[in-house]
Amino acid sequence: MKYAAVVERRTGSGRIRTTAPYTPSQSRALSPARLRQLSRRSLLKKGFAGGAILLLGGSLATFLRGGGRGRNPRQPLRLLTAKEYGIFAAVAARVCPRQPEAVGWPSPDNLDCAGKVDQLLAELHPQVGTEFRRLLHVFENGLNGLFSVGQPGTFTAASPEDQDRRLEAWRHSRVALFRSGYQAMKRLAVATYYSSPETYALVSYPGPPGVPLVKAP
Predict the structure, then answer these.
(1) In what helix (H) or strand (E) does residue 203 lie, and over which residues does it extend?
(2) Under a CB-based contact definition with an 8 Å cutoff, are residues 177 and 49 in contact?
(3) Which residues, in sequence order, are bridge partners of residue 128?
(4) At 184, is the secondary structure helix, strand, or coil?
(5) Chain centroid to CA 101: how far?
């Protein structure tokens, strides 16, 4: 059985979000349960240049900091810092499906996608979390904005239009780290968005099947 989901497609004039068939198998492919199975190599494909960029991620965070709209964590964070939480929340707000004209679609902030990603990453191999945190700092950095779209400034301080341009630049970058980094951030955001029970009715999804309890012999 198919369900309706909001998807994004590119046109000559920009990006348009519409509804399209959606199946539970797509949800399983992006579910947190599946993401827990990711190895360190499968989360980020770095290459030699990407590995060097990640190693510099911590020091790059000192250039052109802050200035963006803050997002406060709703619960104690297990892995991410408050700054990293805010960066990912800003990314999720741009990559998750959204229909401003439709009533009832929750925002990624309302679903706390960033908080759910923090909880998920805390359960993975420590190296996965370390590399993902460095990736967030590289993406947020003002120098990345300069090299990606020709405008210095942090991602969280950029306008929604410029944020979309930076995401698209990473999506189509020749640098393997940037392409895989974009995919990692988007998949984590979408996985936590659609795995939230608040979205089930919106895509006519009845929810995961219940598992019957069996008494131990």
Answers:
(1) none
(2) yes
(3) none
(4) helix
(5) 23
**Residue with tokens 């104690």, as numbered in its chain:** 76
Q: How many other CB atoms are found less than 10 A from the CB of residue 163?
A: 21
Q: How far apart are the first and last CA of the chain?
A: 37
With CA atoms as reference, report the closest residue to 117 among 145, 141, 95: 95
Distance separating alpha carbons of residues 169 and 24, to the nearest angstrom: 30
24 near 45, Cβ under 8 Å? Answer: no
**Contact present, 203 and 30 (Cβ < 8 Å):** no
Strand, helix or coil for residue 141: coil
Neighbours of 114 (CB within 10 A): 27
pLDDT of 197: 93
Cβ pair 80, 121 in contact under 8 A: yes
- Rg from Cα positions in the chain: 18
- pTM comes to 0.74
How do residues 179-207 score in pLDDT, each as one tens digit?
989 999 999 999 999 999 999 988 888 88
Q: Is 9 helix (H, G, I), strand (E, B) or coil?
A: strand
